[in-house]
Design brief:
single chain, alpha/beta, 7-stranded mixed β-sheet, 9 helices, globular
Length: about 260
Amino acid sequence: MTGGSDTDQRRDGDFHGKEARYRRTAEFIEVLRRTLTSGEPFDYEGEFYRFEGAFSSVKPHGEVPIFFGGQSDDAIRVGGRWADVYALWGEPLAQTRERIELIRAEAARHGRDIAFSLSVRPIVADTEEAAWDKAAAIRRAFEENLAGGNGGAAGWRIGRGENTAVGAKRLKDEADEKLIHDERLWFGVTQLTDGGGNSTALVGTPQQVADALLKYYDLGIRTFLIRGFDPLQDVRDWGEELVPLLRAGAAARERRLAPAGRG
């Protein structure tokens, strides 16, 4: 709804500036929450939306969590006020810690707690060397597609030079600094896509990538959105080792944190 690229928004017929789009997003979330929880019809009139007798007879079982992302000041203000889960790109640990602290502080201003999600693309293989070879092959595929004017690999859409999102600029700056952060956080595709999309990757064996993800868990991340460059085979590989290792590591941490005597 908010959008990171003014150009993309205008393609879809949306000519509001980014600040206005964030105000619209906040208004939408407010109306959505009220619609899902109100026991009787209500009227609403805001800057962007107007309703008379709004009501939903279909109600969710329990609360529907609102996931939200964005790195600009406007995004953090809106997300801190309204989001249940704040979605982050796969940035280096130090930068991730800083963003978590900033967003938590904004949520606390409204008397709220907030959870966090991390989006990253694991690249796993039986050996670390094989995993880095796989990463290099993925980068070559992107380079070949870019050279051929196809805009990306495996259906990846790249709007080069168009994405004005603060998050994209952060990723681009980190990719320009170096392609590998924190030992195995790889920006090889991020560099080619000018910081676009969920493009950073953790590269290594399943155990190495699980250990890397658990370092984000230790920062407070509780949801991991993992996507692949070869979706079907990646899901098979992750299901065999990576996901079970990640779950086991998270469960072990929770047991250590549990108060004595709790089952």
